Amino acid sequence: MRSALVKVTRCVGPGYVIATRETVGLDAQCVEVDLGRFWTAVDSERLAEAWDVGRGPLLPGFDEDWVHGARAELRNRVAGVLDGLAGAAEESGDLAAAVGWTRTVIERDPLSEQRVRALMLRLVRAGDRGAALSSYEQLRARLANELSSAPSPKTRLLAERIRAAGDGPPAPAAVPAASAPRLPPIVAARARLPFVGRDDELAWLSEAHGRALAEGTLVAAVAGHPGVGKTALAARFAVDRHAAGAAVLFGRCRPDGPTAYEVLADALAQLVAGAQPDQRKRWAAEAGGELVRLVPVLAASAPPPVGEPEGAARRTLAAVTQVLAELASQRPVVLVLDDVQWVDTPTVALLARLARASLPGPLLILLTFRRAGLGEHDGLRDLLHDLRRDGLLVQRTLEGLPAADAAGLVASAAGHEPSPEFALALQRHTDGNPFFIEEVLRGWDDAPVRGRDAAAIEAAIAGQRLPEGVQRIIGRSIDQLPDRSQDVLLEAAILGSAFDLEVLGALAELAPEALLDTLAVPLRIRLVEEDADDPGRLAFHHALVREVLLARAPAARRAAVHARAARALEALRGAGNAAQIAR
Ligand SMILES: Nc1ncnc2c1ncn2[C@@H]1O[C@H](COP(=O)(O)OP(=O)(O)OP(=O)(O)O)[C@@H](O)[C@H]1O
Ligand SMILES: [Mg+2]
Asked: Is the CB of 195 under 6 A from ligand 1?
């Protein structure tokens, strides 16, 4: 052994070999091992380099037992590197590269169903449904030949859905529009109104639809303030999908004590009303009494509902699922449920099950709901939470329109292009809320739409009478606040569109912490917001909130608060805070 070591040292030079009584090795500082480079690259997430170094077999030609284990481990890690490369390519929008990397990992691990499913989904997203299905066929043949087995139900279901889905995103034009059920009247009516902007949101919805095409059922939720354009966006999207061959169903929740399943009944009633008599008869017979209960128009074609009340929820789910499954087997289905902040509890339970049901074709459930008050109701919040956890939900909050789109809206409402100054002032005043923009413009005979003098425009907008619709909507958010918060907001409104916390605290006679407690909810629902440059100041989110607060308070009350505000300012000035107050 010693003479062997001497020989090695002579060959490689001194300092490389480290030998103790128990071990003999090479000094890691002096030699470079490709495996070491691989691990370093993996640890620092340089995946392309890791693949470059680790792609070959470990120690080819060696056949010792330990080599087999190490080789398998390295192969696993390299496969993980390839998965990472594919994911990163997809995220950066390079689907071709994502498909390439996924194919490479499958060459090395052809029986991995999970990877074949990923490849199928990526191919569908890249618009190559045929290749996705042939990858599935290759997997099926290999499993049969090599393991005498078949793909798992999950992989089979994916293949069936891809087969049923038509040409895949972005335009699932599998079925001619003429044969799809007619557009619900409310959606058709909305589609005739002007529509501006929202390109990002529409692209996001198309992507969600693409996912539903590939994966089955997906829920997309659009939240936002009243009047921000949730229904308009849902209707525009639904019209586009309908034109591409999808079936569109539309139901709306109502605020005043909804009866169970009302919104679904709404959506299905239109479908049933438009169906052929023999189809109605079949639905009535097959989907049973609960469907008749939901859609009474079916009663003419079927016996009255029967069954024990305790099984009613299950039977209703079965009935709704059956109708949707039948529809989805022919074409993608978009089910729009509008204003689900008012949804009834049985519908929430049904939606939770429906989203997980296995339908033979794609279903996108598009929910819209207001989030202007103190949050959605518990049932809805839990539903969204559970769906998100299971990867079945995508969600987005709709903000007001940016100035450029607000200009487009003004142009369509006023009949001519506004000046950029006017569009910007109106956008600021209303926070780009299209309903508020329309309301402010309404009844304004002589709007300075083309004016260029920003100050004059601001003054003209501020001098407008506060539209009733705006008052009602913002008033409703204010009504939901605790009384003390409402009082403090009125005091803030008297101080100005932006206000100093110290001054407000003095006026409201609240210590800083108590004041912040009182403002916590208005801040959360964004009636007011913090000044990014000055932590001591807050501002109303848009001017209309302040105007509504002032308009709602009786004149005597406003005068009293004014007087107190003057005294509070005086007292603070006396205490030497004049500089702060002056801001
Ligand atoms: N992108 C848009 N382009 C043009 N007009 C729009 C747009 N979005 C909304 N509007 C108009 O603004 C008004 C309010 O929109 P919409 O009814 O969609 O709001 P919403 O968010 O659904 O409100 P609510 O919470 O009250 O249901 C409607 O008159 C609508 O036509
Ligand atoms: Mg709406």
From this structure: yes
